[in-house]
Amino acid sequence: MDEIMSKNNSEYLIERNDNVYEVVIGLEVHAQVTSNSKLFSSSSTKFGAEPNTQVSLVDAAFPGMLPVINEFCVKQAIKTGIGLRAKINNKSVFDRKNYFYADLPQGYQISQYKYPIVGEGNVILDMPEGQKQVGIERLHLEQDAGKSIHDIDPSNTLVDLNRSGVALMEIVSKPDLRSPDEVNAYIKKLRSIMRYLGTCDGNMQEGSLRADVNVSVRIKGSTDLGTRCEIKNVNSIKFMQMAIIYEANRQVDLIEEGQEIDQETRLFDTKKNETRSMRSKEDAHDYRYFPDPDLLPLEVTDEFIDKLKSEIPELPDDKKKRFIDEFKVSLYDATILVSDIDIAKYFEEVVAKMGKNRDMKLAVNWITGELFAVLNEKNIEIAQSPISAKNLAKLINLIKNGTISGKIAKTIFELMLDGDIDPQIIVEEKGLKQESDPKALEALIDKIINDNREKAIEYKQGKEKLFGFFVGQAMKASGGKANPQLINEILKKKL
Amino acid sequence: MSEITSLTLYELIKNIKEKKISSNEAAKSFVDRAEKSKKINAYVTENFENCLKLSKEFDDKPNFDLKLPGIPIAVKDLFCTNEVRTTAGSNILNNFVPTYESTVTQNIWNEGGILLGKLNCDEFAMGSSNETSFFGNVQNPIAEDLVPGGSSGGSSAALAANLTPVTIGTDTGGSIRQPASFTGTVGLKPTYGSCSRYGIVAFASSLDQAGPMSKDVKDSSILLEVISSFDKKDSTSIDFKRNNYSSELTRNIKGLKIGIPKEYRVDGMPDEIEKLWKKGIDYAKDCGAEIIDISLPHTSYALPTYYIVAPAEASSNLARYDGVKYGLRSSGKNLIDMYEKTRSEGFGEEVKRRVMIGTYVLSSGYYDAYYLKAQKVRQLIKQDFDQAYNKVDAILTPSTPSSAFKIGEKSNDPVSMYLNDIFTVPVNLAGLPGISIPAGVDKNNYPLGLQIIGKSFDEQTVLNIAYSMEEKINYKNNITDWWMK
């Protein structure tokens, strides 16, 4: 039905009646700050606690209770700003965003409205067609609300205030994204940067990362922005992509029918795979923002910022460059290896443990091949890898120095999974050491040729396919331990 | 026993330390007198039994090193008190019992004070006559059917009626100084940031400040010393060096320069206020101060500025009273209906008026014209004072444009009621310390007060000038205990 033209991998265009539309996307990402306590109170932020067990008098907005800023959360926001190559503002202001809701105890959310802590920055995306820079408009700190639960009690809404007051960073992008693939890359990059920095765990299942998605469409080539719709609170990349595709096509349909697009807030229904109007611009809340008189303007000195800068670890873009320069890893492999801090850490540990005679190609292949397959199968993260970097490095070294063949290595790898066993021990216990003694192998091959005289003659007469038969017989006779390279050499000589 | 209740705080402390009076005797005297003074309606919640018990415990194990050794004290019902109902004078908090203590009251208990009870006040401290309280009008002990001022009306009445040796109020636009002026007592609003706001039911956060109310200046200095402290739980609390206000109190104010702002001569100000002010200037001269005419050019904008800033903050501060978590909840068909019914039934007329004004001035399209402009004017008012303080050490003005009025006289005329704050609100807008001391009476023999405004953090100079002038003025309330007859 919908004609989607695809010139490059990540381009997303919609064609209708000879008109070609592009989609313009901006994201407001809400990232939960990694912090033991809330933005303005000392309550715990631990996920999964019993409802209403992590609520202080401040979080529940008791009379006379006052917010006190959590310095750690401020540092986390500044670090994130540095990671986004953004301007850090020496002065920012907390405002009150006023609205009534049962899970908003104060009757207002404390949020930075006019003067955010972080200003403009940018993020680099690695797309199949090359790098793309996405502008960051701002990053500000704000409180999360509590949770209204409508589906436990048939006649009442229950409220859980554990999340009330948890620190969020709202990261607003410029409308620079053009396709669902770019959105995917952007969210992943943002998540990666914050995980490197330790400022947000990026766990979308636990709600640590959600986004409001702003979507508009325009004729490709136009520089005007179309009327946008905001899709609220989407909590997975897949849903963001589905919502964008639905919404962009809806808008194109309206334009093609000669209708206007209303600027409105919409909800994405994940079951029906459609967006629905939540409220129009006319119904928009008047939040009556004003500076929170309980809090002084937040002032940070250049020294304070510089000190945080000095604590910033190597971030994915720099790490990738180093992997390519120092380890001679391909761009493609480097991109995968730095995509998550734990993968990068694992890789670097394998490299370190391999020692002088290291083989980067083998290391990359084993991590992104065998290990990733196991992690996928078990649905776990690399941090929970059943095989430690140290033992994987040993396994690679055993291949590299000819102790075992790649085929045997795969058998050993399977055995290592059961309790991170040292591959050296498996080799010794199971007697899996590769047979690389030429004399022993020659004797073995002589016997095979003797036993298969007719086939040897056929081979000599030109039936070259039979070479494989002899290799197979030799491997079989050695119990798979024969050094395949030597087998090849000896066979060629003897036949 | 009746003489115990008429002692000043200083005298009572002295007697207790000299073991001439026990804490329990003092508590009994105040409780007995309160039982005979129900007509004043000063108390919203009595803590008498507990007070008597705690006073006995103090006597069993006295600690005379404390600054308020075993002293029974009643406080305004805007301070949250652990396990003692705290209403803020509102129906919406009618059943609210905090599980925590305000920093200011905690400071008092830490120094040996004992809670007598919670004193009536205007609802959420919004009012100048105590007539907006859900718990009824308070009688001014000066004369029957006279308002005690507000919003700390229960506090000023209890003090003037000798129901508590001292008390604490809160002052957002004059709520300590105006009731002090109306009852012939002393009321001090400290510099913003001097006393912690933690645990005080908020009215307008950028203006609210707790302060002492007492029978004389020395008592205010003793109480200020106890309640003023830096508090990390209040981000607007200021960490400055606090004086030992009572021991540093002196009547030597020779050479101090006192400014007289010409803009405080407002149109229609009664003659007797003008006369009182002149008298005050003479007293200040007698004390050795130098009088200097000054100008605070933006004074006339203070009242409209205040009535934008304060309701704006209040409209947001009072959003938490929604029936969801604590306090009154009316039943409704759905969430919105429950909100509307709870807040309609829970709030009184004056609170609703200010919530609506505040909501209006913060609305998009009006924000710049009202709230933002008011904030700019507020800066100008502050600058007026800063410039004046280049020339003078303190400023002398009347406390109020009139004496106490009759109950009901202004309750249907909010603007005329708001005018009561005309001399006090600029001080809150600028965050400065100000004290009201009794200085004379009007034609009806109702008390009139003079206000001394100081530099930020310079409560000591304010107290010293007040202390010095107080001796010259030698004012005494003539209270006949008419309500007991």
Task: Using brief descriptors, characterize the structure shown.
heterodimer, A: 495 residues, alpha+beta, Arc Repressor Mutant, subunit A, three-stranded antiparallel β-sheet, 17 strands, 20% strand, elongated, B: 485 residues, alpha/beta, Amidase signature (AS) enzymes, eight-stranded mixed β-sheet, 16 helices, 11 strands, globular
What does this molecule look like?
- The complex is a heterodimer of chains A (495) and B (485).
- Chain A is α+β, with helices and mostly antiparallel strands.
- Chain A has helices spanning 71-83, 180-197, 237-256, 302-310, 316-327, 331-338, 341-354, 360-378, 389-400, 406-416, 423-430, 438-451, 453-460, 466-477, 484-494, and strands at 3-5, 13-16, 19-32, 91-92, 95-98, 108-111, 121-127, 130-143, 147-149, 158-160, 167-173, 209-219, 229-234, 264-269, 274-280, 290-291, 298-299.
- Chain A contains 15 helices and 17 strands.
- Chain A starts with a strand and ends with a helix.
- Chain B is globular.
- In chain B, α6 runs parallel beside α7 and α10 (302-317) packs across α13.
- Chain B has a domain at 2-256: Amidase signature (AS) domain (Amidase signature (AS) enzymes, Alpha-Beta Complex).
- An 8-stranded mixed β-sheet of chain B has the order 4-6-5-10-11-9-7-8, with helices on both faces. Chain B has a 3-stranded mixed β-sheet with strand order 1-3-2.
- Chain B has helices at residues 2-6, 9-17, 23-35, 48-60, 103-110, 153-160, 177-183, 217-227, 271-286, 302-317, 335-346, 349-362, 368-388, 414-418, 425-430, 459-473, and strands at 43-46, 72-76, 114-119, 166-170, 186-189, 210-214, 257-261, 290-294, 394-398, 434-441, 447-454.
- At the A-B interface, loops of A face α10 of B.
